[in-house]
Design brief:
By secondary structure, the chain is α+β, with helices and mostly antiparallel strands. It contains ten helices and twelve strands.
Amino acid sequence: MDALLTALADPARWRLVTLLAERPRPVGVLAQLTGARQPQTTKHLQTLERAGVVTSQRTGQRRIYALRSPPLRDLAAALGRLADTADQAGGPRETYDRYGHSLHAERLAAEEAGWADGRSFRFLRPLTARPELVWRHLTETALLARWWTPDDLRVSELVFEARPGGRILHEYRDAEDADGSDLVAGRAEGVVDDARPGERLAYRLSPLLPDGGLAFTAHVDLILRPTDTGTGTDLDVHFRITDSTVESADFIAGIEIGFGQSLDKLAATLTADPHDTGSTTPHDTDDTGSTTTPHDTDSATTSHDTDSADDTGSATTRSTK
């Protein structure tokens, strides 16, 4: 396939292919029709023949070239599969486009400081685990790192002190940025306001701008209610914006998509093992009871689900939990 693509990439050879698609032709005629010298035309035809897209046979003193269609059909099929992958309903490209539309609208709206203050979002998720286990996934960093990013991202640094006044640090990178050489996708700092195990978690979290300033403050309130059966949890999340800057548009544009994807990953994680009561993976614990994950951990994974606000899948977006 590489040889075929290389052969077809040259405009002069592509012109020869189009002429041979009409009918087999001799070298001399092909040279005339393309306005090239015959030795140069012969060289191009030999390249195409080595790539398997043309064949030739000698008739008397002339060499006649003809097009071979199977390699072109194989190439067309491969390109079609690529297009189908990119265009899959609810796939990453669809989410990318949705984020682009949202980004354009938010940038137009962000004319002055405070432009998004008071805007709120609500997310509802029925979870298959009891509130006690859901609480652990909301507050223990080794478990948080499994789901607390939008799709195609991974947690690279995380601090979460699950007590009033506790510190929060949340940094994330592209999921495939294994060595950390790419730019950080997002970094946020915040503080816990309320922590009632198995019932309510409230905190403030502010994404950081490139200059270190705060883009906006997200007031996040998570309410956990046991289901009637006692085996699950209804998670009700309220997300409110204050202190919005003009530069916050890029982040705010991704809240509905990105935070929804994060919650879908939480739901998927709990569905996979709703009765997990074992210890989490090793992490550091300080004398305040907080836990941290090391810088550039690989523990976050991606998934492909839907959120309550809309039903598309993944994309790389800027978001906060």
